[in-house]
TrEMBL record, chain A:
Enzyme Commission number(s): 1.2.4.1
GO molecular function: pyruvate dehydrogenase (acetyl-transferring) activity
NCBIfam families named among the record's database cross-references: PDH_E1_alph_y (TIGR03182)
Annotated protein name in UniProt: Pyruvate dehydrogenase E1 component subunit alpha
Species in which this protein is naturally found: Gossypium australe
TrEMBL record, chain B:
GO CC terms: mitochondrial matrix
Source organism: Gossypium australe
A Pfam family this chain is assigned to: Transketolase_C
Gene designation per UniProt: pdhb-1
General function of this protein: The pyruvate dehydrogenase complex catalyzes the overall conversion of pyruvate to acetyl-CoA and CO(2). It contains multiple copies of three enzymatic components: pyruvate dehydrogenase (E1), dihydrolipoamide acetyltransferase (E2) and lipoamide dehydrogenase (E3).
Catalytic activity, EC: 1.2.4.1
Name of protein: Pyruvate dehydrogenase E1 component subunit beta
Gene3D superfamilies to which the protein is assigned, alphabetical: 3.40.50.920, 3.40.50.970
UniProt domain Transketolase-like pyrimidine-binding: residue ranges: 34-209
Quaternary structure and partners: Tetramer of 2 alpha and 2 beta subunits.
InterPro entries registered for this protein in UniProt: PDHB_mito-type, THDP-binding, Transketo_C/PFOR_II, Transketolase-like_Pyr-bd, Transketolase_C
GO function term, MF aspect, one: pyruvate dehydrogenase (acetyl-transferring) activity
Keyword annotations from UniProtKB, A to Z: Metal-binding, Mitochondrion, Oxidoreductase, Potassium, Pyruvate, Thiamine pyrophosphate, Transit peptide
Subcellular location: Mitochondrion matrix
Cofactors, names only: thiamine diphosphate
Length: 424, 395
């Protein structure tokens, strides 16, 4: 199991090590490879901005932090926020499963049970303008980013009130307002998209001269994706162009029925970061506080334009790949092992043991979330299905070309269009 | 007699001096001549200077000045942050372009040839074309994918495929294919300004061809509408639809004889003639009194069905010409459209001229057989008009 890791340790070494038991092949510590280019700049920068890092952590950090337990890394409010977000994710996914087995939900549904710590740990540190991209297992990341439960549930039921008016579905949750860029069925497809969003942040700063544009992008994907070509292409380009992106690997050890160890020549994924000139971090993805600490550093790095980071979160999905997956290939002992490390239970214990919250507080949150989810179900079930006229809508932003002018007409139909300027 | 002999001698000596591809200014009108390459370059330049959100990315677009020199000079003018040389990672950099477009920038992604776009086709279709629909209008993708498409000369099977039919079958994409410099400028500017993903299929062999352009075309706000075809030559006997290089071949069926008459004393041709095949075949078409109407499609998706159908209703016969593979090609779509809308107007079966149903061979004579030539179009026109024609010409 991963030991506690401290921000000071991170600051001193640009490639954070999580030394763990030697038996676990996934936690072989990375060594800082003497790599050229941004790697060396990283070492210089990190040591000089050591103090800044600690000040920016913004949490309750005591001086003798290096070996202490993570329980004092958060305040009560933060702790409750994390708890509520994880419980929302869990309750929502459980409700989806229930509705699916009641035949009220259809199609592909991929649930996130067990991995909530990754989503909550990272996304709760983001601003509204930061971007996230995911694979098809995207309900909980969308919830963490702020998309309402009722909008997502309506989308899953294919109703017109869904976040994508029923046109996307479970695997394609998009939200312009919350900067959730999807929801992609092809694994690896979201990574270049996220890299593009990060590119845009840099472009805005460098070319469009919006100096305060420090928007960060998080790309979430799984262990199976780490064998995909696009993943490596984007690690290369993100490091090459020093893009403000964090690559978050939700390593749940299984890609449908393919074990990560059977599919990968070099299982430790975080080792692939330094090969491309960026730090590769491994973290215990079942512990939201540890994930949060790593996330702070990685997101901080990206915000300060120091370049990308690859974070491998060791986590586990309690359910099958999708609700149609009989999940027969995974060893029950392995499932039990990880079920004992349920992130919600762990956080609950941590909050109570450290007197940050009482049992009653947490039960109140549980109840509140149950009500939110029930309300979402009611809303979704009562919502109408999309009207038939919606079939042909939204194929193009502008079917006729060149955009729509301020008077609402297509610009290409304006009589003097040749005198117009480039479209804004 | 001596005067006539001198004239003829003058004419002939001028013919020797004239280069194969004319870049001379025409003296008879104010029209300037620019190559397709210059047209594309100027269009990119103007759009980049008008809108700072437009940027270029692709292999060799920067320091190499463009694999086909289309982006020449742009790196020096706009800097490396707006003209990006990418590593050889089509899937990766296309996805990055799409992601940047999701967030409001306007990338122009160059594929060295569209054959390489197959490595990125997931992003073109799944993340660019479908996104506006999947997100119910929240995420629009103002991106342009451009590059040479179709057969070049002797480049073999993996560098010669035409992708018009594949991309045009996908809802959510706009697919454009210019023929001459005016098309190139107008359509590329329209594509960059358009808020939707546009696949812009150029042709390598046309890059060096020059065409006359008017002052209106050279104006920086010139744009052509997407979804409108152009009738390059009016006619009354048979409609020929074509796009890109095949427009030149279709016009060649008609233009040679007409421009022979227009050749002035100094031996200058007033019209450029791409390709070099069978001018005598072209004259036969005119001599037989077949006046074909040539439609330059310009926009493959959306296809200008109304122009095509209106033309067929006038001429009652249709030939579709394309360079790509015949099955499920553009000709099939046009034929179906005409049969659906103008069936009773057809006096002859619709004929499709397409590339051979084989991967492109390398040997020059086989390659010539695998791509439509002017003679094929002429013979098809005659068949449509129920004239007897000899069997397929040999190489």
């Amino acid at each position: 199991m991963a030991t506690a890791f401290s921000p000071s340790k991170f600051a001193a070494q640009p490639f954070p090590l999580n030394t763990t038991s030697q038996n676990n092949p996934l936690t072989i510590p990375t060594t800082a490879s003497p790599f050229l280019g941004s790697t060396r700049k990283l070492i210089r920068l990190s040591s000089s901005s050591n103090l800044n890092l600690r000040r920016r952590s913004g949490t309750v950090v005591k001086e003798n932090k290096s070996q202490s337990t993570p329980n004092l890394l958060i305040t009560k409010e933060e702790g409750l926020e994390l708890y509520e977000d994880m419980v929302l994710g869990r309750a929502f996914e459980d409700k989806c499963a229930q509705m699916y087995y009641d035949r009220k939900m259809f199609g592909f549904v991929h649930l996130y049970n067990g991995q909530e710590a990754v989503s909550t740990g990272f996304i709760k540190l983001l601003k509204q303008q930061d971007f996230i991209v995911c694979t098809y297992r995207d309900h909980v990341q969308a919830l963490s980013k702020g998309v309402s439960a009722r909008a997502i549930l309506s989308e899953l039921l294919g109703k017109a009130t869904g976040c994508c008016r029923g046109q996307g579905g479970s695997m394609h949750i998009f939200s312009r307002e919350h900067n959730m860029l999807g929801g992609f069925a092809f694994i690896g497809e979201g990574i270049p998209i996220g890299t593009g969003a990060a590119f845009r942040s840099k472009y805005k700063r460098k070319v469009l001269k919006e100096a305060d544009c420090d928007h960060v992008t998080l790309a979430f994907f799984g262990d199976g994706t780490c064998n995909n070509g696009q993943f490596y292409e984007c690690l290369n380009m993100a490091a090459l162009w020093k893009l403000p992106i964090v690559f978050v690997v939700e390593n749940n050890l299984w890609a449908i029925g393919m074990s990560h160890l059977r599919a990968t020549s070099v299982p430790p994924i975080h080792k692939k970061g330094p090969a491309f000139g960026m730090p590769g971090v491994h973290v215990d993805g079942m512990d939201v506080l540890k994930v949060r600490e790593v996330a702070k550093e990685a997101i901080g790095r990206a915000r300060r334009a120091e370049g990308p980071t690859l974070v491998e979160c060791e986590t586990y999905r309690f359910r099958g790949h999708s609700l149609a997956d009989p999940d027969k290939l995974r060893d029950p002992a392995e499932k039990a092992h990880y079920a004992a490390r349920d992130p919600i239970t762990a956080l609950k214990k941590c909050l109570i043991d450290n007197s940050l919250a009482s049992e009653a507080d947490l039960k109140a949150i549980d109840k509140k979330i149950d009500e939110v989810v029930e309300e979402a179900v009611e809303f979704a079930e009562e919502s109408p299905v999309p009207p038939k006229s919606q079939l042909h809508e939204n194929v193009f932003a502008d079917p006729k070309g060149f955009g729509i002018g301020p008077d609402g007409r297509y610009r290409c139909e304006e009589p003097k269009f040749a005198e117009g300027t480039a479209l804004d | 007699m001596l005067a006539i002999a001198r004239q003829r001698m003058l004419g002939q000596s001028f013919k020797k001096i004239l280069p194969a591809v004319s870049v001379l200014r025409s003296y008879s009108s104010a029209a300037k001549q620019i190559t397709v390459r210059e047209a594309l370059n100027s269009a990119l330049d103007e759009e980049m200077s008008a809108d700072p959100k437009v940027f270029l990315m692709g292999e060799e677009v920067g320091e190499y000045q463009g694999a086909y020199k289309i982006t020449k000079g742009l790196l020096e003018k706009y800097g490396p942050e707006r003209v990006l040389d990418t590593p050889i990672t089509e899937a990766g950099f296309t996805g990055i372009g799409v992601g940047a477009a999701y967030c409001g920038l306007k990338p122009v992604v160059e594929f060295m040839t569209f054959n390489f776009s197959m490595q990125a086709i997931d992003h073109i279709i799944n993340s660019a074309a479908k996104s506006n629909y999947m997100s119910a209008g929240q995420i629009s993708v103002p991106i342009v994918f451009r590059g040479p498409n179709g057969a070049a000369a002797g480049v073999g099977a993996q560098h010669s495929q035409c992708y018009a039919a594949w991309y045009a079958s996908c809802p959510g994409l706009k697919v454009l294919s210019p023929y001459n410099s005016e098309d190139a400028r107008g359509l590329l500017k329209a594509a960059i300004r358009d808020p939707d993903p546009v696949v812009f299929l150029e042709n390598e062999l046309l890059y060096g061809e020059s065409f006359p352009v008017s002052d209106e075309v050279l104006d920086s706000s010139f744009c052509l509408p997407i979804g409108k075809a152009k009738i390059e030559r009016e006619g009354k006997d048979v409609t020929i639809t074509a796009f890109s290089k095949m427009v030149g071949y279709a016009l060649k069926c008609l233009s040679t004889s007409m421009s022979n008459a227009k050749q002035n004393l100094s031996g200058e041709k007033l019209e450029d003639e791409p390709g070099d095949s069978g001018s005598h075949a072209a004259e036969m078409l005119e001599k037989d009194g077949i006046y074909a109407e040539v439609i330059n499609l310009r926009s493959i998706r959306p296809l200008d069905r109304s122009t095509i159908n209106a033309s067929v209703r006038k001429t009652n016969r249709l030939i579709t010409v394309e360079e790509g593979f015949p099955q499920h090609g553009l000709g099939a779509e046009i034929c179906a459209s005409v049969v659906e809308e103008s069936f009773s107007y057809l006096d002859a079966p619709v004929e499709r001229i397409a590339g051979a149903d084989v991967p492109m061979p390398y040997a020059a004579n086989l390659e010539r057989m695998a791509v439509p030539q002017v003679e094929d179009i002429v013979r098809a026109a005659k068949r449509a008009c129920y004239r007897s024609v000899p069997l397929a010409a040999t190489a």
